[in-house]
Amino acid sequence: MIEAIPLQSSGELVKGINNTWILTVSFLIFFMHAGFAMLEAGQVRAKNVANQLTKNLLTWSVGVTVFFLVGVGIANAAAGLGFETPFMAEADTGSAFVYVNWLYGAVFAMTAATIVSGAVAGRARLRAYVTYTILLAAVIYPVVIAMTWTAQSAENATGLVEQLVGTPFADFAGGMIVHGMGGIAGLTAAWILGPRMGRYNDDGSANVIPGHSMTFAVLGTLMLAFGWYGFNVGTASIFSDGAFNGAVLGRVAMTTTLAMAMGAVGAATVAWAKTGKVDTLYVANGLLAGLVGITAIPNTTTWWGALLVGILAGAQLPLVFSFVENYLKIDDVCAVFPVHGSAGVLGTLLYPFVAVAGWDGFSPNVSFMAEHFAAQLVGVAIITAWTVTATALIWYVLKLAGQARVTPEHEREGLDLSEHGVDTYPEFGDEDGVVADGGSVKTDGGFVTDGSAVRTDGSVANNDGDSK
Asked: Which of 13, 94, 390, 442 matches a 20 to 30 Å C-alpha distance to 339?
């Protein structure tokens, strides 16, 4: 039986409340994995749903263990603090914060890791993805936080950006460190893997491969938005040096909410301007892009800055996705780069221009803007260079070894059957209705359950050739 420890002072009470709150925030952020699971499952084809869900489950299960055993130690060592990991903590009351702090860091780390799964959906081997997750949790992400958060929060240590330019890199809750890094890693991995079969024609034009459930995708979006309050507002609620800053808490709640709203508006507006239609998936992902955009800077941004960051982050989504799809020819299945990568970079770089400290009434503080923009730019460049280099090396080695991608036969059949031996929707299966790419089409000309018969205009085809 665990005995309660009497509180000796108000300081002990603050520590107890703080640890409990940090755990609550961690649970909220952990719940975002359910959102990622639904969002990604909705955007992949029916024959790949179980594979995507399995990757989400293993991202957490494998990654959080590796981060406990190795990742935290690598982060501390790379920051010059020595190789100290949570399992080295003494098994007494003094270890409580060590364990709490590890879990709080782990939910951020695993958010970065799970973003990658959406970019490589539909063709990456499970073993390749798990291998990458292990290395991301052990080395790639820990090096990123070593250069930023770990060094900045330690005594007698300075972040790499501050060492280089004399001004610290600002990222409050992971707009660049978590989301930007994850989106860039996903784009890099998708580039090395190559596109899904049928994604591009011989002339280079792109085919639309619809996801199997818009409902799941929107549900996942709203679940992520709920968990995001833990990401941003929860972080602002933590006592810092025994003090509580209510002004920062209120600002973070306000800017997070406004940017989220304007992200959806920005994406909807650009999609409507391009096609005359308001694309539901763009609206959903635009909402998330608005959240990503503000995540680095919710504690410092003005109200109008939150509106600006949100609408720009949402507006860039359809444009960047189109650029990645049509010019880079990279098959980013769940649009993780425009949602997390470019939106994270955008918000991080906008910091000095929308910060309260950047303005004296209506007059811009030019020196503040120039000084902090340089720091933000250097920080973004360093994180991008490290993430691209490490990710490309790992996936390229896996590709050379023939372990990165499933066989063409398994890709046509679907990863649910080839990797897991299950059919997510067995009641819709029809042996007579299996088409060349492994999708299921009803033989009576009914609906396509996974959008597998691809057309260049984004519609789907019956087995008699008519479009639906």
From this structure: 390
Residue-level pLDDT at 1: 47
Q: What is the 3-state secondary structure (H, E, C) of 306-332?
A: HHHHHHHHHHHHHHHHHHHHHCCCCCC
Bridge partners of 72, per DSSP, are: none
Nearest partner of 292 among 198, 390, 221, judged by Cα:
221
User: Are 185 and 136 within 8 A, CB to CB?
Assistant: yes
**Structural domains in the chain (count):** 1
**In a domain? residue 407:** no
pLDDT value at residue 115: 97
Interatomic CA distance for residues 350 and 301, integer angstroms: 10
Asked whether residue 427 is domain-assigned, the answer is: no
User: Under a CB-based contact definition with an 8 Å cutoff, are residues 13 and 7 in contact?
Assistant: yes
* Residue 143's CATH number: 1.10.3430.10
Q: How does pLDDT run across 155-195, given as a tens digit for each residue?
A: 767 899 999 999 999 999 999 999 999 999 999 999 999 99
| Cα–chain center distance at 95 | 30
At residue 90, does pLDDT exceed 80? no
The pLDDT, as a whole number, for residue 6 is 55
User: Contact at 8 Å (CB) between 120 and 59?
Assistant: no
Write out the residue range of the structural domain in which residue 300 sits.
11-400
Q: Which alpha helices (H) appear in 44-159, and where do they start and end?
A: 49-66, 72-78, 96-119, 126-135, 141-145, 151-153
Cβ-based neighbours of 109, under 8 Å, separated by 6 or more? 63, 64, 67, 71, 137, 141, 142, 145, 178
Residue 370 in domain: yes
Q: Across 351-440, where does the E strand assignment appear?
A: 359-360, 363-364
Average pLDDT over residues 257-270: 98
Q: pTM for the complete prediction?
A: 0.88
Q: Please give the average per-residue pLDDT across 207-224, as a whole number.
A: 96
